[in-house]
Amino acid sequence: MSEESQRLQKVIAQAGLSSRRGAELMISSGRVQVNGETVTELGTKVTSHDQVQVDGAPIEGREKLVYYLLNKPRGVVTTNDDEKGRRTVLDILEDVDQRVYPVGRLDYDTTGALLLTNDGTIANQLMHPKSKVNKTYVAKVEGIATEKALLPLKSGVVLSGRKTSPARVSIERVEPTKKTSMIRLTIHEGRNHQVKNMLAKVGFPVQKLRREQYAFFDLTGLQPGEYRKLTSVEIKRLKAQDYKMLRHK
User: Where is the RNA-binding S4 domain positioned along the sequence (predicted)?
Assistant: First the structure.
C-alpha cells in the first residue's frame, strides 16, 4: 500500500514553521525545496520519503501538534515577537517546547480567552471569516447603558464605511454612582478594535474589556496569566468540519 501524500503547505505548517497561509507564501516566493528542487506550485504533494527544506534548512520531522487555552492578562501583546520589547503571550507559556502561535489576537489591554497552537490548519479555519466563530466579551463602559441605546448593535453599526454583523448584546449591570455599566456582547467577526469601536459608536467608551468565551471555550478554572492544555474531547470538537457548530449557544 502506498503512503498517503499531503499538500506541501500542510506539511510545513505541521512542522511548526508557520501557519498554513504563511507556508503558502513561503512556497510561492521560492523558499521551499523538495528533494533539492525549488517548488512554487501550491498543489504539490509530498510523503515522508520526500526531503523538504525551507530556506535551505531541512524540516526535522513533524512537530507534535499541541493546543492551549490561555487567560490572557492585561499588558501582554498577542504576537510571537514584539519590536518594542514588550511581554508577549508566548513569554507566559514558559514550559511549552513547541513553537506555538496565537489564534487571532487580543489588544494589549484586553484580557481573556485566547487559543494558541502549532496546528496551522485549525488556526486558519478558526480565523477565516466564513467560520463565524462566536466570541463573547464583557465590557466595562462609561455611561449608563439602556436597551434602547444598545439596540443599533443588534442590527449592526457602520465602522469605517462597513456595517458590522448583528451582535447579541445585554446589560449585566449598571453603577449609577460611578456612571458606568457592564455590557455583554457576542460577535463572530474579528475586525481591529471592533468591540471597542462598536460600543463607542453608540456612546459607551470602553474602560475595560474581557473576552469570556471563544467558540465553546470559557475561562473556568483559569486565573489571568494561567493556561491549560485542551482535552482530547475539546481537540476533537475543535477539528469539526462545520465551524458554524462551534458557536456558543
Answer: 6-69
